[in-house]
User: What shape does this take?
Amino acid sequence: MKFLIQRVNKASVKADNVITGQIGKGLLIFAGICESDTEEIADKMLKKAYNLRIFSDSEGKTNLSAGDVGGSLLVISQFTLYANCKKGNRPSFFEAGSPAHAEKLYNYIVNKAKEYCSTVETGRFGADMEVVLSNDGPFTIMLDSEEL
Assistant: This one.
């Protein structure tokens, strides 16, 4: 599993020209899921993401987590995090999880996130989406379950 996490001042996502999710200060999490991912892996990834101390304290040091600052979460499924660009110029996505497996685990992640945070917004699984964000920093981190 891969999470691309961006600390944002605000972010929103549209599918079919309809806003499906929007947040103020918090974390925009793009979640990439592969076939071998499990709920246990999702639990570890979500706990790590939510507790990352990437928000500034009163002295400007990154000592606070999303929970410490009352941050919201916007979680968007992103199979392209598993793009393989080794051969040619056209990415291959064979490492991404099957749509059925990925959607089930994505829904699990969203529901589990609600245990951490009162404001959890989402994109629409499998849809063509437009994401708009104001990256705070910019501050972007890649979490890979293979490295946890």
